[in-house]
Design a protein that fits this description.
The chain is mainly α and about 120 residues long. Helices cover about 75% and strands about 0% of the residues. The chain has a domain of about 50 residues. The protein has 4 helices and no strands.
């Protein structure tokens, strides 16, 4: 049962962050959305590769619980660093680009949601 509960919590976190993180990038970096999206995607991929490539050697040297805890420690460290950086930055104020609506995409079909509607 604990494994199922952990999987459920992890899956919920992934689902929420897949929606929230692009919005945070757009809010904090409205002029550099593609670059910052690429950067966070590359970091997520690199950390996932690091965690999966060290899991078996660590479980052999220690045990599997500590191997998984090492990967979780990286996530906890990232969350603490991000929270500290956000607190140091102060309240979020929209940039001039965001206020102008830069980066907003027009509707692909014009004012109607479906092609051919009048």
């Amino acid at each position: 049962m604990p494994l199922f509960l952990g999987t459920l919590i992890l899956s919920a976190a992934v689902a929420v962050l897949n929606v929230v993180l692009p919005a945070v990038v757009r809010r904090d970096f409205p002029d550099r959305v593609p670059v910052m999206t690429g950067a966070y995607t590359a970091v997520m991929t690199g950390v996932a590769a690091l965690a999966s490539s060290t899991a078996v050697p660590l479980s052999g040297a220690l045990n599997w619980e500590l191997a998984l805890a090492a990967a979780a420690a990286l996530s906890l460290l990232a969350a603490l660093l991000w929270g500290g950086a956000r607190a140091a930055a102060g309240p979020v104020r929209p940039s001039t680009a965001a206020a102008r609506g830069a980066g907003a995409h027009p509707a692909p079909c014009g004012p109607h949601p479906w092609p051919g509607e009048s």
